[in-house]
Amino acid sequence: MNQWTHNSYSKKKVRGLGRRYRAFSKYIDEQLDSLPTPDNIDPYYTGYTSLHLSFAMFFTNSKKVPSNAKRFFVQKIINRVQYLLDLRTKEQKEYRIFCIFNSSDLEGSSILILFTKKGMESFYQGFFSTEIEEAPYIHLHHTQNLEAEWGINISEGLSVKGYKPCNTDYEDKVQDEIWFIGRLD
């Protein structure tokens, strides 16, 4: 996980970083200011909604982007997940709300809201499917070091799970770690 402690390869100042922080904060606050309601009221409905968060929309994905920008991006997503979990009512207590991000490429980051527990089971069946090119995954057991190594704060009520694809064709290539943070049970 040395991608968070890497050198930015440049001594030059990154221009407009504060503006980018504010733009991303405003965007995520506007997009997720309240919990969505499911389209179907059937108790067996396994639907979900998600918000794809493009890192490249706010920060250029180059070597010059400091690790603080990546840290800010991930921390803001985690904070918004906690905010949505706090907004749940008794009727929404079954909602599974969590974020997904890749440790080396933040471009595919998302916040997912699954409306039922069956939706979560369906999500995991799709995630661990052997039909996907990157599957299967190995569960990472060093999730307790996530906060210390990356410098992010995870609230006590949030679960953390990490997975790494076990692709034997590319042993020399550094493989990505996929992290899930939120209500996962």
3D structure, described in words:
With about 180 residues, this protein is an alpha+beta fold. The protein is built from 5 helices and 6 strands. Strand 2 and strand 3 form a beta hairpin. The longest helix has 21 residues, at about 65-85.
Labels describing this entry:
185 residues; alpha+beta; 5 helices
List the helices and strands and how they pair.
Layout: H1 17-31, E1 48-53, H2 55-58, H3 67-87, E2 96-102, E3 109-114, H4 117-127, E4 137-140, H5 146-150, E5 159-165, E6 178-182
Antiparallel strand pairs: 1-3, 2-3, 2-6, 4-5, 5-6
Helix pairs in contact: 1-3
Strand content: 15-25%
> Mean of residue pLDDT?
78
* Gyration radius, in Å: 17 Å
Q: Tell me about the largest β-sheet.
A: 6 strands, antiparallel
Global geometry: globular
Provide a quick synopsis of the model.
The protein is of the alpha+beta class and 185 residues long.
